[in-house]
Each structure stands twice: as C-alpha cells, then as structure tokens.
Amino acid sequence: MKKLTTTLITAALATAITASPIAMAEKVLRIGHDNKADMMENPAHAFTGVFKNIVETATNGEIKVQVFPSNQLGNAKEHIQMVRDGQLQGTLAPVGPLAGYYPRIGVLDVPFAFNSNASTYEVFDGKFGQTLARDIEAELKDVKVLGFPDTGGFFSVTNSQRSIENLDDFKGLRIRTMTLPTHQKIIQSLGAEAYPLSWGEVYSSLQTGVIDGQMNPVPTVSFAKFDEVQKYLTLTNHLFAPYTFMVNKSFYDSLTPNEKKIVSDAVEIALSANRGLSRLIEASSERGLAGLKKKMKVNALTDEHREQMRQATQPGVKKYITQTHGEKGQELLNLFLSEVEKANNSTYLQ
Questions:
Q1: Where are the alpha helices (DSSP H) in the chain?
Q2: Per residue in 164-191, pLDDT tens?
Q3: What is the pTM for the complete model shown?
C-alpha cells in the first residue's frame, strides 16, 4: 500500500508538472499543506498565496511556486517526508506530524505560557525561533526552516456538555487531542480524559458523541464547522502551536544569494498576511467569535481560574519535557521560557 501511495503521488506530481507552464520555469517550488484553497478562509493558504505572489513577481517567474492544498498529495506527515525526499520543495508542518520527525517540538507545549498574540510573534521571530529552526535542521539534516506561520492563534476548548468556567468543569469530559503526549498530559492535568484522534476523525466523533470536545484555535473551530456539533466554546488560550515552514535543503542550496533574499523577504511578508488573517477571522462577524456566539455559548476564563489551570498543568508538562527530551530539550525549554517571559513583559513602542 505504501508503495502504491508513493507511486500515485509521484504520478500526480508528474502530471501537474507536464500539464502546466510551471514546467518551463527554471526553478519550481511545490508546497503541500492540509488546508482549503481559499486565501480568505484559512491562515495556511493566505501564507502560501502571498508567498507565491511575491516570489514569482520578484524573480520575474524564474522561480515558480505551485501550491497543493487540502492534502491533495497526502497527509501532513507525508508532506514532511516528501520535502525531505525532494518530491515536494516545501510544506507547512503542524506540530503533531512534525513530532514524528522532531520530538523536541514538544517544548512548545508549556500550557498557559503566553499573555498575548504579540508575545508569540516576538518569540518565534526572535532568538528562540532562530534556535529552534537550526535545531530542527540539525536533527533532520535535509530541510531548511524559514519561519513559523500562525495556525489560527491560541487554542480554545469546545465541548457538547457544559460551559467550562473552572477546573472542576473539565472532570469527566472526553477531549480530543493531537497524538502528542504533551497535549494529552495537559488535558489529563485539567481533569479530563485525553482522546487522541487524527484530524479526519474529529467532526464525526464529535457528531456521534464518541468524544465530548476538542481543542483548536477559533478560526479552526469556524472553518471546521464544529459549531454544528458543539454547544460550548471556552477561550482558554492555553496553547500556541505554529506551523513550521520548511523547504528541501538541496533546493534551498540551489538558490542564488539574491533568490534566497527574495524568498526570505517573501516569508516575512507572508507571515504578516498569515497572522493578520488569523486576527481578522477572529474578529469577523460571520466566521469569528461574533459569528460563533450566535451558535454557541462562548466564555473566557477569569484571571484566577486561568492561574489555577496554569498551576495544575505546567509542572507535569515541564517535567515530561525534561525527562523525555534530555539535555538539548532542557536547553530549548529554558530558552523558550526565558524568551516568553521577556515577550510577555515587553510593551509596544515603549
């Protein structure tokens, strides 16, 4: 089956190349991701769309960017392997699939760490983000990490049973998580049952009552239409899990210094569009919180209850990271916490 899948993917790529003017380009950067092909619908396609436009325009078409959304060529984990193998040149890797190749991505999962979206951008665009990128490259050896796009903002929790106001409200709930031990430990520390499931199973499992709830950013709750199968949305803001935008190292090394500069500039601008769309969706009267409030009961945590949840979850997750990821993991964790603290305490333009 795996051989057949690989053959079909290769055939699909070959068809796309031969059937398109892109085949005439000097260099082609094919990017796969797992979201819809609508730049105004989700942050992932906003990132790739803006990136494509800037790269193709700035290079006069000498680099062509071709985007394969909606898992056209496989799932997110397969995208990562295809980038490593050179079948794709780029992907936006979610933390869950990336953990299979780079387990230390779990250092990002310290719950209730960030105070604001601005803090997350400062951390991932700064010293920690640069260190994390170099560590991923050193571990995988065949990729180049170019940035950390937003998946939609902070995680919230939805469920079908009751409004979550405090720790006690988590008891007995079955909450879907990614297949990440750190995510499971967070849910368990809150008093709920962690129920790891692949993304494709989430909606139907919520619909049939196999699980009571799930955790994702607000834009994901909106475009996945979870409001159809969930009654309650709690703005826990407990995690921030960015994409990792990676490209094939051999492809990147083949670029001229000027082309690398164009790609770098394109990433910076695409990140602004990606993050801006995330905030616009959150604020949208149709797709954001205002729209969801028409269909779900939405509430935010008080500072007191957020602090209680932080104290209940952080010690166990930090201990797990330290025990599991060794000395390098501890170094990354320490840097992460240090940079988060600085970002949380910084003030814009002051």
A1: 2-18, 43-58, 76-85, 95-99, 117-124, 127-140, 181-189, 202-208, 218-223, 249-254, 257-283, 289-293, 303-345
A2: 999 999 999 999 998 889 999 999 999 9
A3: 0.89
Nearest to 323 by CA among 179, 107, 140, 108: 107
Section 142-155 average pLDDT: 97
41: pLDDT strictly greater than 90 = no
Two tokens at 287? 């797709």
Instruction: State how far the alpha carbon of 277 is from the alpha carbons of 4, 68, 79, 195, in Å.
Output: 38, 20, 24, 30
Q: Can you tell me whether residue 130 is helix, strand or coil?
A: helix
Three-state SS for 41? coil
Q: Looking at residue 94, what is its pLDDT?
A: 94
> How many Cα neighbours within 13 Å face the side chain of 174?
11
Give the strands of the sheet with 63-68, arranged side by side.
63-68, 27-32, 90-93, 244-248, 143-147
- DSSP letters for 269-301: HHHHHHHHHHHHHHH-TTTSHHHHHTTSEEEE-
Other C-beta atoms closer than 10 Å to the C-beta of 179 total: 13
Instruction: Give strand pairing partners of 63.
Output: 27
Note the pLDDT tens digit of each residue in 196-220.
Answer: 998 889 999 999 999 999 999 998 8
**Rounded Cα distance, 255 and 272, in Å:** 24
pLDDT for 24: 47
Give the pLDDT mean for 14-36.
66
C-alpha dist (Å) from residue 70 to 33, 35, 80, 200: 6, 5, 15, 12
Residue with tokens 């040149």, as numbered in its chain? 89
Residue 335 and residue 128 in contact, taking contact as beta carbons nearer than 8 Å: yes
Q: What is the pLDDT of residue 350?
A: 62
